[in-house]
Design a protein that fits this description.
heterodimer; A: mainly beta; seven-stranded mixed β-sheet; four-stranded antiparallel β-sheet; B: mainly beta; 11 strands; globular
Chain lengths: 120, 107
């Protein structure tokens, strides 16, 4: 059973860059056939798909965040990462990494999530 | 971007009763519709995809139906562990978009 675990700073200052890593166990990010996703949820609110990467390294980002987002893959560490630049309080959220249901933007396996607060 | 609208916002149901949750898309998403369950303090978990296919390990009391713009999640006999928030999500168009959720609470 694949497991995912997010890690990174819980507090980021406004205008700085949010960086998170998702470590995958029980599966390989380079094995093919899956999207590796980032999804976020502001406190008390709904879910927003940030973007995904797949084994070739190709990415797709939510147009609302595209100018600020980078998702990358580190096959040597079996991880994928999220960078979000120029953050504001509106980026405060629980950030989840998730494995897709094959090549579909359906989140079949989720990490536990990590709360990132943007505040000075 | 496709807007997903769920109703009702809150559903009060007694254990053992049937719950019916609705999800509407602002344009057709064919059958590219998923349902998730989220309990407090936990990540969402996938229940249904393809509008009606149960994910691995999901009990048969959960069923999904619909296509196009109108979808339904039915829980045939609510168990204590089913009280949670449920989200629908379309994946016909990028970005995948979620409804605002329906909270199923104990009556």
């Amino acid at each position: 059973q694949v497991q995912l675990q997010e890690s990174g700073p819980g507090l980021v200052k406004p205008s700085e860059t949010l960086s998170l890593t998702c470590t995958v166990s029980g599966g390989s990010v380079s094995s093919g056939s899956y999207y590796w996703n980032w999804i976020r949820q502001p406190p008390g609110k709904g879910l927003e798909w940030i973007g995904y990467i797949f084994d070739s390294g190709s990415t797709n980002y939510n147009p609302s965040l595209k100018s600020r987002v980078t998702i990358s893959l580190d096959t040597s560490k079996n991880q994928f990462s999220l960078k979000l630049t120029s953050v504001t309080a509106a980026d405060t959220a629980v950030y989840y990494c998730a494995r897709g249901l094959g090549y579909r933007t359906v989140a079949a396996n989720w990490g536990q999530g990590t709360l990132v607060t943007v505040s000075s | 971007e496709i807007v997903m609208t769920q109703s009702p916002a809150t559903l009060s149901v007694s254990p053992g009763e049937r719950a019916t949750l609705s999800c509407r898309a602002s344009q057709s998403v064919s059958s590219y519709l998923a349902w998730y369950q989220q309990k407090p303090g936990q990540a969402p978990s996938l229940l249904i995809y393809g509008a009606s296919t149960r994910a691995t390990g999901i009990p048969v009391r959960f069923s999904g139906s619909g296509s196009g713009t109108e979808f339904t999640l039915t829980i045939s006999s609510l168990q204590s562990e089913d009280f949670a928030v449920y989200y629908c999500q379309q994946y016909n168009n990028w970005p995948g978009t979620f409804g605002q959720g329906t909270k199923v609470e104990i009556k």
